[in-house]
Design a protein that fits this description.
313 residues; 6-stranded mixed sheet; 6 strands; alpha/beta; Rossmann fold
């Protein structure tokens, strides 16, 4: 696997392996968390530069074309690696065309609106790449695990019944279908880690002084709800994985592996769109020879400035 083309083929193969386009038969228990795909960390580091260059070129074409927008949804348990994935995967992209939105607990004002309101308002424009660090799925994950915290007067239905959550999942499917009809392409990523790996990462936050700022006691509290979150993710992926808005359920015990697979998935999405820059204006095309001549005969910069000339101020 020494050739760049071989790595590209492997990347596509891994993306297809972990992409869920139909949730009917999805089983989260069958998805590994410690997969390496025959790769190692040093190899992925070496080929990441090529991946970033490909991604940057495709993003430039997306911005120039301006017909499609990209939405990347990142979900995962605490310590799954969402923040570091954004830093590594998006680092080669133009920040002017990349927008990251982190969704925290809804504010008082946000709670007065429907649960999709704040998410819709944060959508990127066409020609841009938007990244949601947590998203509308929090309302069928955290809200489902902690249903007792919901304001029962803010919606119809009973959160204690499966029908309520089925309704929310249906709303999300309709919302995402609407977005795709407006030329937005959606990739939803679930960074799938094991309880043992999460324990290790939380311990790192405690043991390493430079990481202690990340630690919050709520990490330990939420960890006790692991089985409930596992069921909630199972239901969320199974209920919303569609051909137009698939889930990439990527093994994430090894952060370098999940970053590689997510980057390849984003590249594949952009290559499928294949955005092309718009043609130059006709009046420019008819004047190309004249424009070249004017630039070649341009003398600006040929003579020294006053500051460079001796004896002159």
């Amino acid at each position: 696997m020494g050739d760049a083309k071989d790595y590209r083929a492997l990347g596509r193969e891994l993306v297809e392996r972990f992409l869920v386009r139909d949730g009917k038969d999805f089983d989260l228990d069958k998805v590994p968390t410690a997969e390496k795909g025959g790769l190692d960390k040093s190899t992925v580091r070496r080929i990441f530069r090529d991946c970033r260059m490909r991604l940057a070129a495709l993003q430039e074409r997306l911005a120039a074309n301006g017909e499609h927008g990209i939405l990347i949804v990142l979900q995962g348990m605490d310590t799954a690696g969402k923040d570091s994935l954004i830093r590594h995967v998006m680092s080669g992209m133009n920040p002017q065309g990349t927008h990251v939105t982190s969704f925290k607990q809804p504010s008082v004002d946000e709670q007065k609106h429907d649960f999709l309101w704040r998410v819709h308002a944060a959508m990127p424009a066409r020609g841009q790449v938007g990244v949601f660090n947590r998203s509308h799925y929090e309302d069928v994950l955290v809200a489902r695990v902690h249903a007792e915290r919901l304001d029962r007067h803010a919606f119809a239905g009973d959160p204690e019944t499966p029908a309520f959550w089925d309704g929310r999942l249906e709303d999300i499917r309709h919302f995402e279908r609407y977005l795709t009809r407006q030329n937005f392409c959606i990739l939803k990523v679930f960074l799938h880690i094991s309880p043992d790996e999460q324990r290790s990462r939380i311990l790192q936050r405690i043991d390493r002084p430079e990481k202690r700022w990340k630690f919050d006691q709520s990490d330990l509290t939420e960890r006790t709800f692991w089985p409930a979150y596992h069921r909630a993710y199972q239901e969320a992926v199974a209920g919303t994985a569609t051909p137009y808005a698939p889930w990439l359920v990527v093994p994430s015990d090894h952060k370098w592996f999940s970053r590689f697979v997510v980057m390849e998935a984003l590249i594949a999405m952009l290559e499928t769109i294949n955005p092309e820059p718009p043609p130059a204006a006709p009046e420019i095309l008819t004047k190309l020879s004249d424009l070249r001549r004017r630039l070649r005969n341009d003398t600006i910069g040929d003579e020294p400035s006053n500051h460079d000339a001796k004896g002159k101020s």
